[in-house]
Amino acid sequence: MSQDRLHPGIKIAYVNARLLDPATGLDALGGVLTEGETIIEFGAGLFRDSVPEDAKVIDCQGKCLCPGVVDMRMHMSGENVNTTGAAAVAGGVTTAVCLPGIKPVIDDPSVVEFIARTARKAGLVKVYPYGAITKGLEGNELAEMGMLARSGAVAFTDGLRSVANARTMAQALSYAATFGLMIVEHAEEPSLSEGGAMNEGETATRLGLPGIPREAEAIIIERDLNLAKMTGGRLHFAHVSTAQSVELIRRAKDAGITVTCDTAPPYFALNETAVGDYRTFAKLSPPLRCEADREAIVQGLRDGAIDAIASDHSPKSEDLKRLPFADAATGGLGLETLLAVTLELVHNGHLGLLEALGLITQHPAELLGLPAGRLKVGAAADLVLFDLDVGWQVKEELLHSKAKNTPFDGRPLQGRVLRTVIDGRTVFEL
Amino acid sequence: MNEMPFDPSQFPLPHLLGIEGLSPVDISLLLDRADEYVGVNRTRGQMLDTLAARTVMNLFFEASTRTRTSFELAGKRLGAEVINMSVSTSSIKKGETLIDTAMTLNAMHPDVLVVRHGSSGAVKLLSEKVNCAVINAGDGSHEHPTQALLDALTIRRRKGRLDGLQVAICGDIRHSRVARSNIHLLNTMGARVRLIAPKTLLPAEVERLGVEVFHDMKAGLKDCDIVMMLRLQTERMASGFFPSVREYYHFYGLDYAKLEAAKPDALIMHPGPMNRGVEIASDVADDIGRSAIREQVEMGVAVRMACLEVLCSNLDREDAR
Fold first, then answer.
1. In angstroms, what separates the C-alpha of A267 from chain B's closest C-alpha?
2. B255-265: per-residue pLDDT in tens?
3. Hey, are the CB atoms on B119 and A207 less than 8 Å from each other?
4. B interface residues, A as partner, C-beta within 8 Å
């Protein structure tokens, strides 16, 4: 790896790091050299003996240094790009993709451009937008996918709504394939989930809350798998939450259907008992499921049936959460706990460290075609330095989001972000 | 009533939000005390001053006449000041308003808030924002603890016990807070509970609450000591829970023919208000020998007196700390 003269700017040498790159399987003591915004050299054993004289040195003290976390799904509604950005970088997230369910809805190219521009100006997390599948997310007319893609939308989704009409979904899959982009579906049959407040089952029955059956998810997954087969479209399911969903997708993959999926930390780290005594911070969409479902999600992450982990970050103000459970908004914070909760899978022995990191770096970046998620000479210097072992507890006052609605409130976690670097600049330091 | 070995401080909670979680001792404490009040209530001209200078506020977000009146009377019989806050259901839809209302009322320093709300968990949420005692007078489909207590007192006085009795609860279990509170109470006190309803009116995995489930009324009523009927809200028909009142009555309305399966001395209960000819035949409801429906109303006042007294006494202990 040669020095490159084309990158002006200061050089920074990250020395004495446990260098981790899921894309290449690299896990070794080494270093990274950045110049300006770019990685110009990295590798095992780099800087073991000497450091370039003109470089500023950051001693990583043997801690883990890896590509910045790529979050393939977050909501920006309710907060501005600065608070969201601060939350992201505190969680080691350097690239995030935001859902179209903001105001205005991302169904127009000008909105796509606006979001990218605002995020660039804030200089924190790099934000890419999803485009809407249908105008106004209403499930009727297709949004201008081609134009949205041209102006920067990385894929299409109607956010927390399934495209209820099968014909519309078939056309969306087919039309999006024209531009080589994928459709990301929130799988939930609306006629079954309508009015539901949490997972259907014993807990909902005890609490006297209307339930959302697991089958609402499976029905849309089965329908869409058929539509993907029919149209040849590229299909991805967002936040799968049930054992049956994982099994359906696993089988579809085996059958050669081009389908992928992700899940979010609540679905492998929590179950419906987190709702406890009407804790609205645990009111999510899809709802937290039962323990057997949680175990199946873990298994799906282990065997590759699930391709990625997204934060599902969704800030909700007190006014929207301090309500009777059925009236409270769905959604929980996720950016600041994404890495640490994912590391639980490593500490619990379910995944190797590189496997786990791949689910939040390389895989989501590849699914969406983002220039991120791996260490590469010439690529943007987006890095996260973290302590794999240090313990901490999720507490309201530690969170950078304006809203505090984390479903992991009070949870002890192991592994914490020490420093986040975006385009060569340190944007977060513990 | 001086030599009674009643110690209200034995009740371990600041609020009465539900039956789930109460121990047999807690329940018996309330029932025993309520039993004493039945006699007091039957004596004309008796007025106690147990709760003199106490303020009880009835805060009903859902329309109710009988429960509200019952609490009002219970408070007054104990000498408390009782205020009824009528909250129009149309203006109160949002929970911010619920919290706001709670804060406003709390600032007036009531001793007890008696709250009914259409959303499950709403009364608990409210209880977290106030520093007085809160009694749940029904929250959504969750719990209605004083109803279960008055049902238990009615049964205990008629049958002499709760332990070992076979109790059938029939009707719209899915949407019923009365059913949930009764299931918890009866199970805790050692009775055996059966639920009888069409599948659409049963919540998911309800058998996990420790009940036996029946869809055939005669099979479910067989050898039962107690038959508890629930009110069927005919609005549910529009949402497809059952096809017609006629069909519902045919399969799940309590008439003498179906009642034959129960024990000859089986007691018939209903939390009211009844839909005659929908879930219960008029002649069965009015059968003086078997129906305890009016007695339930009487027990309601006594049970609520006991609850108010116990929670107020806990307030004193809180203040002392």
1. 21
2. 999 999 999 99
3. no
4. 20, 94-96, 98-99, 117, 119-122, 124-125, 139-143, 177, 180, 203-206, 208-209
B118: closest chain A residue by CA: A324
Exposure string (b/e) for B274-312, b if CB count within 10 Å is 16 or more?
Answer: bbeebbbbeebbeeeebbbbebbbbbbbbbbbbbbbbbb
pLDDT reported for residue B2: 44
DSSP collapsed to 3 states, chain A: CCCCCCCCCCEEEEEEEEEEECCCCEEEEEEEEEECCEEEEEEECCCCCCCCCCEEEEECCCCEEEECEEEEEECCCCCCHHHHHHHHHHCCEEEEEECCCCCCCCCCHHHHHHHHHHHHHHCCCEEEECECCEHHHCCCCECCHHHHHHCCCCCEECCCCCCCCHHHHHHHHHHHHHCCCCEEEECCCHHHHCCCCEECCHHHHHHCCCEECCHHHHHHHHHHHHHHHHHCCCEEEECCCCHHHHHHHHHHHHCCCCEEEEECHHHHHCCHHHHCCCCHHHCCCCCCCCHHHHHHHHHHHHHCCCCEECCCECCCCHHHHCCCHHHCCCCECCCCCHHHHHHHHHHCCCCCHHHHHHHHCHHHHHHHCCCCCCCCCCCECCEEEEEEEEEEECCHHHCCCCCCCCCCCCCEEEEEEEEEEECCEEEEEC
Q: Where are the alpha helices (DSSP H) in chain B?
A: 24-42, 66-77, 95-106, 122-127, 145-159, 177-188, 217-221, 245-252, 256-259, 282-285, 293-320
Nearest CA in chain A to B120: A208
Given this model, what pLDDT does residue B166 score? 98
Pick the residue from chain B with its C-alpha nearest to A191: B239
Residue range B16-44, pLDDT digits in tens: 999 999 999 999 999 999 999 999 999 88
Query: Which residue in the set B20, B125, B204 is minimally distant from A211, CB to CB?
Result: B204
Task: Kindly state whether A167 is in contact with chain B, defined as any CB-CB distance less than 8 angstroms.
Answer: no
Which of B98, B125, B142 lies at the smallest CB-CB distance from A207? B142
Q: What residues of B are labeled active site?
A: 66-67, 94, 116, 144
**Cβ–Cβ below 8 Å for B124 and A326:** no
More confident position, B283 or A116: B283
Q: Tell me: pLDDT of B64 over 60.
A: yes
Higher pLDDT, A83 or B172: B172
Length of chain A: 430
Given A213, A278, A319, which is nearest B121 (Cβ)? A278
Measured between beta carbons, which residues in chain A are less than 8 angstroms from residue B98? 323-324
C-beta atoms of A202 and B204 within 8 A:
yes
The complex's ipTM? Answer: 0.92
User: pLDDT category, B318, cuts 50, 70, 90?
Assistant: low
Over residues A32-49, mean pLDDT: 92
Q: B100 pLDDT band (50/70/90 cuts)? A: confident
Please say whether the beta carbons of A83 and A333 come within 8 A: no
Q: Which of A106-120, A193-207, B109-123, B210-224 has the lowest mean pLDDT?
A: A106-120
Q: Which pairing describes strands B55-60 and B81-86: parallel, antiparallel, or unpaired?
A: parallel
> If residue B228 lies in a helix (H) or strand (E), which one and from where to where?
strand B226-229
Residues of A with active-site annotation: 312
Contacts of B276 (CB under 8 A, 6+ apart): B282, B285
Of all residues in chain A, the one with the smallest CA distance to B203 is A205
pTM of the entire structure? 0.92
